[in-house]
Amino acid sequence: VQLQASGGGSVQAGGTLTLSCVVPRDVIGLTAVGWYRRPPGHERELVARIGDGGITDYADSVKGRFTISLDNAGNTVYLQMKSLKPDDTAVYYCYIRALENNYWGQGTEVTVSS
What is the distance between the alpha carbons of residues 68 and 53, in angstroms, rounded to a whole number? Predict the structure, then answer.
C-alpha cells in the first residue's frame, strides 16, 4: 500500500500547516487512518487517528490545536495543525490500518522555529 503525504514545511511558532495524505481507493478492510510523528531523537508517536465509526483520537499534546479530517470521497486524510510549537517539530507519517496491518507513508518534515 502506497501512501502519499504532503504539506510539510518550516513555520514560526504560532503558525499553521495542513498535511494531506492520499489513501488508495482499493484498500481492503480499512479500519483507521491517521498520522504519527517522530520528533528528533524520539520514538514515533500517535498524533491523531480516525477509527471505526469516524471516532477521532488525539495525542494530549495536540488536542485543541490539531484537527484530523477525511474528505467526502474518503481517500484523502488531512491534518490541520494550528498554534504550532517548536515541540511539534518532527517527521510526520500518514498511516492506515487495514486487515490488522499498519502501513506508513514516506514522511513529511515539519519544522517549527521559535
Answer: 14
